[in-house]
Amino acid sequence: MSERIDVKKTYKLFINGAFPRSESGRTYEVKTSKGAFLANACQSSRKDLREAVVAARAAHNGWSKATAYNRGQILYRIAEMLQARTGEFVQEIMITTGVTKVKAEKEVLQAIDTLVWYAGWSDKISSLTGANNPVAGPFYNFTIPESMGVVAAVAPENPSLLGLIESIAPVITSGNTVIVLASTKAPLSAMSFAEVLATSDLPAGVINVLTGKKDEIAPWMASHMDIDAMDISGLSSKLTSEIKVAGAENLKRIYSFKGATAARITAFAESKTIWHTIGV
Amino acid sequence: MSFEYAPAPESRAITNIKPKYGHFIGGKFVAGSKHFPTINPATEEILSQIALAGKSDVDAAVKAARKAYNSTWSKMPGKERGKYLFRIARILQERAREFAVLETLDNGKPIRESRDTDIPLAAAHFFYHAGWADKLEYAGLGSSPKPLGVAGQIIPWNFPLLMLAWKVAPALATGNTVVLKPAESTSLTALLFAEVCQQAELPAGVVNIVTGDGSTGALIVNHPGIDKIAFTGSTEVGKIIARSVAPTKKSVTLELGGKGANIVFEDAAIDETVEGIIDGIFFNQGHVCCAGSRLLLQENIAEEVLHKLKKRMEKIRVGDPMDKNTDVGAINSKEQLAKIVELAKVGDAEGGQRWSPACELPKKGYWFAPTIFTGVTSAHRIAREEIFGPVLSVLTFRTPQEAIEKANNTPFGLSAGIWGEKGSRTLWAAQQLRAGVIWTNSFNKFDPTSPFGGYKESGWGREGGRHGLAAYLKSVSNEKGVM
């Protein structure tokens, strides 16, 4: 009996709810921690980024105007889908990063719990960060948090799955749409996670996932005039200054974080203050 | 029958303008080396000579601010810090008339506005923030939020004392010390404020005021001894500041330009709306970052609104800012007037139809008649660029969706207005607009409890309200409960 040959996965990008290859036709080799060949990942180009921004912008109005309850349920749905595929992600993380099964399992379970945590935030953030302002006049004045728009995120190299989820979950919680550049060295779990997203009722374009070189794509993100903000938690601090200078062209809000915090949601929210005139 | 207004001039006797000023550093007035004149833009009269701060002046101010931060201000209990702010609020109220007259002389804005808006709001800002000083742990920034240190603050000429209050009050309430630079053309009320600090016995160095032009501002922005930059001014300069501080650890808040849409739906109460349009664009000669400078009229009522607007504009009294009956005063400077004139010419060249009421402008000083341009489209420069003067661009729309699209079609996102009697539609429109401050059936209202600031290229951060405190505090990183 001849040995059965495995069917290997082709890793592509995730843009506007579909899985295209990079328009550039470029790929790069993803290897195990010991240096063995694993897969060819797409090396995204500036044009891929621009396609993703178009998709993210188109998705923004619908996603930001969806009810907080709806956004929370979709975030929770993503967690459900990830939970069901835990084993696959554990394997993928182990093989790409060389960590033990216990460690890989811990990362995946924490990633699921992080999604659940942010799912519950979507309909609370407004109550906690909004305000009724007692102005000295006949006005009903209130401040509410709103989405900033399109956010570009550079996910940390490590942990590749948890870091990616920490970069996107808080951003979409308040109604932003996002383009995330995954870990360069360990991009496989990010692309498998895109499959999770594709089966979670998430509207196309809300989350777009790219793989490739950070020092190539991040500056294009910073200078793109239709990106409103950036999370550069996964970027080498050597690039921070260059990114901020380029981002100043449209006054992008650019932040860096560690771990899953509520501040990560509010950083990508704008405060809108509305004065309603009171009178008979 | 027509009624004429007799002149009702405010006296300037209450002011005591010195022939020459220095800087206010470490609680004392110190002489400057170079000077430049500050003028009354309504008469071109030279009011005084203002010192131009150079590197050594800015260094001395930063040093004084750091010393005050380390030795007294950051250690003082919030309860006591707050009392100084309350004192300042009270002194501003006591000397309100003097401040109002001085502001009008130096800025050119009508005395009615400096008296009824600028100065009372400046006092209110200190009173409001005074009460925060001992309650910062309730601000949603963690159990013990900390001040940032020395704040460098650069303010514009359109609301000189009020912008000083927006900057200094929250910085002091949160335990920071400041180096403030007023705008080149309007330094006098900031220098009078230095006297208020002395009367309030504010510890030396907590507030330092250096005067000068853009070169002084750049020295502050790039000073290594400063922890935070707070700037109000043009988007152009805001971007320069953002680039300058990119390699540093400085915190930054920016309050920048705007091109506010003022949307009038078909069911609006027309007479009230016309008053609101006037307030939106002609308040403070249109020198307002959040001015309603793009009027969006629903097509079926456009003719009626424009007719009534023009009739109302014919009643606007332009002239002597010191006259209590004056509605629109002088343009703040020769440079600003040149900018307005140039952009209005562009409006003509691009095919807009210009209209101004017949009004006699004074021979001396800097003046621009209230002006509207009709037949403007979203592509015209006068619909895209901030004019910062009494010039209104009028566009029309057919459906509410089209109004929102046009309103949001701008790199700015500071303010917007909505006029209409149907509550659900005004709420819907407020939800759709991408702007930080929205007025429904009103325009250009301000209050210290109400956060102010913009989306997109209109700036970073908020001023006023609980939200404004975040600009001057850092929370313990990753502490639970920090929003």
Account of the 3D structure:
The complex is a heterodimer of chains A (280) and B (483). Chain A is an alpha/beta fold. Chain A has a single domain, classed as Aldehyde Dehydrogenase, Chain A, domain 1, CATH 3.40.605.10. Chain A has ten helices and ten strands. The longest helix of chain A has 21 residues, at 101-121. The mean pLDDT of chain A is 97. With 483 residues, chain B is of the alpha/beta class. Chain B folds into two domains: 23-256 and 458-474, Aldehyde Dehydrogenase, Chain A, domain 1 (3-Layer(aba) Sandwich); 261-447, Aldehyde Dehydrogenase, Chain A, domain 2. In chain B, the strands form five sheets. Chain B has a seven-stranded mixed beta sheet, sandwiched between helices. In chain B, strands 8-7-6-9-10-18 form a six-stranded mixed beta sheet, sandwiched between helices. The N and C termini of chain B lie far apart (62 Å). The interface between A and B is large, with 41 and 46 residues.
Note the topology.
The complex is a heterodimer of chains A (280) and B (483).
Chain A: E1 27-31, E2 37-42, H1 46-65, H2 68-84, H3 86-97, H4 101-121, H5 125-129, E3 131-132, E4 139-147, E5 150-154, H6 160-173, E6 177-181, H7 188-198, E7 207-210, H8 214-223, E8 229-231, H9 240-247, E9 253-255, H10 263-266, E10 269-277
Parallel strand pairs in A: 5-6, 5-8, 6-7, 8-9
Antiparallel strand pairs in A: 1-2, 3-4, 4-10
Helix pairs in contact in A: 2-4, 3-4, 3-7, 4-6, 8-9
Chain B: E1 23-25, E2 28-30, E3 34-40, E4 45-52, H1 55-73, H2 78-94, H3 96-107, H4 111-130, E5 146-147, E6 150-154, H5 160-173, E7 177-181, H6 188-199, E8 207-209, H7 214-221, E9 228-232, H8 235-245, E10 251-255, E11 261-264, H9 270-282, E12 294-298, H10 299-313, H11 334-349, E13 353-355, E14 371-374, H12 381-384, E15 391-397, H13 400-408, E16 415-419, H14 423-432, E17 437-440, E18 459-460, H15 465-469, E19 473-474
Parallel strand pairs in B: 6-7, 6-9, 7-8, 9-10, 11-12, 11-16, 12-15, 14-15, 16-17
Antiparallel strand pairs in B: 1-2, 3-4, 5-19, 10-18, 13-14
Helix pairs in contact in B: 2-4, 3-4, 4-5, 9-10
